[in-house]
Amino acid sequence: MTLLAWAVAFLLDRLLGDPPHWPHPVRWIGALINLLQNIVRRYCHSDNALRTGGGVMWLVVVGGSWSLAWGVLALANAIHPWFGWCIEVWMIFTTLATRCLADMAREVEKPLREGLLAQSREKLSWIVGRDTRQLQPPQITRAVVETVAENTVDGVIAPLFFLLLGGAPLAMAYKAVNTLDSMVGYKHEKYRAIGMVSAWLDDVANFIPARLSWLLLSIAAWCCRQDARAALRIGFRDRKNHSSPNCAWPEGTVAGALGVRLGGPNDYFGERVDKPWIGDDTRAIEVNDIGRAIQMMWLASTLALALFALVRFVWMGA
């Protein structure tokens, strides 16, 4: 029944994505983070105090997310096993973001193809932290491909990995870790202290999934008739070309598969950040690379599900 729950949740994500008006735990987690961040900032003013407050905030959000998920699942199973199974499917479904990621990438791609740069920049600003107001088509395309590659890890592979390790409650705790990083884990002055713990522990949580993505995306590149050999080579070669210890693994793999260059300098919160380049400039990046990256993301996600389901079956049975 457990593996069936995984498969059903994955299919639901593939079919439905993230309907905007449906209840979603990540929105509740985000609201809790905003509340706690305001409380921490009200009472903590020095960098040391903000770091401590940020650590406490992390414990409350992540621990609370795991505890609530575990409690709800236990209660649902006590009411009826099938009710518990349905709740488990719903929880797993909410931790996956494959369809949502693909849809958001397409939302940027569509106006870009039509030459509507202002609209494309606006849609891009919804999914990246960089300043998008002056970006040109190649830069917009590069940002979308980077986002698809990077979020293949934290949107799908990592939740499935923690699902394997600790079921739906641990997958939900991971989503709390990732949401904390996306909201406060910046190096900008405003978040550097309060988000230090969140950023560091997100790196820890994604350490293994990011390296698995190197292999899974390389296999996906081969299946999609992209350059799998370059994906493996450049994914490993450029793995350190990022301030994060994890992001360059999937980005380098996708860059190698497509024969394009990702990364480079960008503006964040009005400040210029000079990032290393990832990949070789074999050819100019083009808008069709967005679709190619999405295709590899879907296949790598399916491979991750199959791999973790196999490990679960061998380890504990269905």
UniProtKB/TrEMBL annotation:
Task: Give any Pfam family that matches.
Answer: CobD_Cbib
Determine if Translocase is one of this entry's keywords.
Answer: no
Asked if the Swiss-Prot or TrEMBL record annotates the protein with the keyword Chaperone, the reply is no
Q: Where are the transmembrane segments?
A: 56-76, 296-315
Where mainly located? Answer: membrane
Q: In which pathway does it act?
A: Cofactor biosynthesis; adenosylcobalamin biosynthesis
Q: How does it sit in the membrane?
A: Multi-pass membrane protein
The cross-references to InterPro entries, in alphabetical order and at most eight, read: Cobalamin_biosynth_CobD/CbiB (IPR004485)
Q: Which domain of life is it from?
A: Bacteria
Alphabetically list the UniProt keywords.
Answer: Cell membrane, Cobalamin biosynthesis, Membrane, Transmembrane, Transmembrane helix
Family, similarity comment:
Belongs to the CobD/CbiB family.
HAMAP family associated with the record: CobD_CbiB (MF_00024)
**Protein task:** Converts cobyric acid to cobinamide by the addition of aminopropanol on the F carboxylic group.
Name this protein carries in UniProt: Cobalamin biosynthesis protein CobD
Organism taxonomic ancestry: Bacteria, Pseudomonadati, Pseudomonadota, Gammaproteobacteria, Enterobacterales
The record's gene field reads cobD
